[in-house]
Amino acid sequence: MIELQGLTKTYAGKNVVEDVSMTLETGEFGVLIGPSGCGKSTTLKMINRLVPLSGGRIILNGDDVTELPAEQLRRRIGYAIQSTGLFPHWSVARNIATVPQLLKWPKSRIDDRVDELMAMFHLDPAEFRHKYPHQLSGGQAQRVGVARALAADPEVLLMDEPFGAVDPITREALQAEMRRVHRQTGKTIVFVTHDMDEALQLATRIALLNGGRLVQYDRPIEMMVKPADDFVREFFGQADLGLKLLSRRWVHQYQRPPSLAHHATLPGLDHCWRLDDAGRPIVLEGARLDDQHRHTDVRAEWIATPEMSMKEALSRMVWYRVMVLPVVDGTGKLIGEVGMQGIMGIESDGGLHAGEPAS
Amino acid sequence: MSGAARSARPLRAASAGNGVLLILIALLIALTLGMAQLEPLFRALFPDLGNPLYARDSFLNLMLAHIGLVLVSSLISVTIGIAAGLFVTRPVGREFEPMVSSLAAIGQTFPPAAVLAIAVPLAGFGFTPTIIALSLYGLLPVIQNTIAGLGTVPQTTLEAARGNGMSRWQILRRVELPLAMRVIIAGIRVSVIINIGTATIGSTVGAKSLGTPLIAGLVGNNLAYVIQGALLVGLLAIVTDLLFERLERRYAFGV
């Protein structure tokens, strides 16, 4: 658990961060967001004292760490930044081992930890251990950067726009990976971004800052449906709030058992999956807007997984013009389906009903 | 680890140069030890000279004395130069940067002959004034490149180093110096090569070096002496330069 109490930063008589207080429980994924110059990055850097505090306190798991020597504090807090900041003269393995080496872990423990982290980020140790940062793609380098930040099993992980410099496709993959890593490790994470979609993908708590002040600190859905003021409302954007809500919904919440035989109940919605011997979907019969009797070969591009966001699932339905997507497990076996009409089916916690006034 | 590291670097240039380097080193040693064997050649080339081979000292002695001069003066320039470069790039010394840079530049604009002229009355003849002149003269490239090299370390890398809990000293030793090393070595290379050439003028104030036959040849109008001294100085400079090039390349990280 990390508590920020009245964090303040003054540059040349001007408060760039003013009295920011928030508590992030252990295991939460907190995202600091706001327009440029709102103080989100400064706030983050005050947590590991890269920016010295002008006022306030930081409580890390009950200890007041404000007076602790900065180096000691930083070894308890992981730190990952934009464009990775990997050490170009060190191999991937040595980069990941940075903090354990500073903490003087025995070599065998460091090696084990490096292998463990590389496995967690799907980097084959045999291939990547001895590579140098310039030999990595942007996505790989960023994974190494996050692995390095996690190496000494820190109490909190700070991430300063870590995916800001990678292309959109890689960024999405990294976000999905970050969600998985967060789930696996249960780490408390503080993450800075200016990208609302990224915040909604990742956050369990969002802190919106403006002009150095904390405007609202809440769960993502609360912020969307109960904005504290017009600034919050505007920042989240009104037009695609529905889609934004879907980006906080996961396929497994909407999944239903797959239809394995035809039953002509609803015109246009009747469909049936054909599977191969291993239980993988190969053909979809029906459920096409253009031709409801058509047989369509299932393609990897429109297969859903339980962890996929509903926004992404909806996007695939629209793009590939299919009314229903197969949901598969890790081995590719069909475990369910998710369909167009299902999107409306779930009572959203806090979502509005048609006809209700918008607060 | 080193295998993977090496494969990442351009190997072609290195292997192409290796043969040349070995031949030049062999030639340097052969000429140093066996200049006397070339006496018939020099006699044929300069039939008018009564004494076409410098014989007042062995070329091995002259070579070792020359290398000694360069080694000692370069050690002094490198030590002072890197220390000064480090000092003015730390927070405490930052305000001294312009002063140190211009002092070093003045050291370089002074002709070494002038420095010798000033140093002789203070330090006497021979080794010491030569060392003073060479050290001053070699200082600028080292200081400049130390400052430049430390300046090439990316801000994000430094921020990552701090954010991962390295102390100032650890950042300097583990991150800044290794990353700046290539540019620093390039500065040392320039400084040493300049000094190999400039050390010859030490002979005008009585320091033994490969400049001794050169000066003797100039004074006594003996072109053969000049060629013998210049040949060895030139070869020494080329070999040293190639060795430094190799050393520099070891510190190229993905550039």
From TrEMBL, chain A:
SUPFAM superfamilies: CBS-domain pair, P-loop containing nucleoside triphosphate hydrolases
A Gene Ontology molecular function term of the record: ATP binding
Domain ABC transporter residues, every copy: 2-236
GO terms under biological process: quaternary ammonium group transport
Pfam families (alphabetical): ABC_tran
Listed SMART domains: AAA
Gene3D superfamilies cross-referenced by the UniProt entry: CBS-domain (3.10.580.10), P-loop containing nucleotide triphosphate hydrolases (3.40.50.300)
Key words, A-Z: ATP-binding, Nucleotide-binding, Transport
Family: Belongs to the ABC transporter superfamily.
Protein name as it appears in the record: ABC transporter ATP-binding protein
Source organism (scientific name): Salinicola corii
UniProtKB/TrEMBL annotation, chain B:
A matching Pfam family: BPD_transp_1
An annotated GO BP: glycine betaine transport
Compartments it resides in: Cell membrane
Primary site of residence: membrane
Keyword Transmembrane helix: yes
Domain ABC transmembrane type-1 residues, every copy: 63-244
Residues that span the membrane, as ranges: 60-88, 100-125, 131-158, 179-203, 223-244
InterPro entries named in the record: ABC_transp_perm/SBD, MetI-like, MetI-like_sf
Membrane topology: Multi-pass membrane protein
Keywords: Membrane, Transmembrane, Transmembrane helix, Transport
GO cellular component, one term: plasma membrane
Similarity-based family: Belongs to the binding-protein-dependent transport system permease family.
The name this protein goes by in its record: ABC transporter permease
Protein's organism: Salinicola corii
